Amino acid sequence: MDYSPEDSQLTCLCGLSAKLRTSKTHRNPYRMFYSCPKYPYNQCEFFQWCDEPLLTGDKHLDELNLIRSECIRLQERVHDIQQEWDNEKADWNRERTELTLELSTVKAELDKIKNEIKLVNESVLMPPLDKLSIEDEEEDDALVIQTL
């Protein structure tokens, strides 16, 4: 139901015209409601959501209407949560694809480096590893590798 301040025939328990307000709570953000115009001081307990049916005075009918409204709100919330989940799943899948591609690239580079190392080790120009000696005569932490 769409209500505007001009449509309001509602009166609070004080007998004043109810004032249209917007909820700023986490649970009901931007939800419109009517309350006592004396807010925030000396207000009565009158409160009516704009999107809920007006009370008819029939206890059972009013309760059914409130339950029906709550069901509609909950269905909308479930839909919103499903949308959020779908968006997060799409983001996750996109990120997984990007990381998988990056991993493949890194693996290919690693394989290339391994092949290059293998070729160098098998080269006739490279002395066998057992023929290398490592000397560290100076205190400057530099290693000198000499072939024998």
UniProtKB/TrEMBL annotation:
It comes from the Eukaryota. One of its GO terms (molecular function) is zinc ion binding. It holds the Pfam family Zn_ribbon_GRF. Residues 64-123 form a coiled coil. PROSITE patterns: ZF_GRF. This is GRF-type domain-containing protein. Keywords: Coiled coil, Metal-binding, Zinc, Zinc-finger. Residues 12-53 form the GRF-type domain.
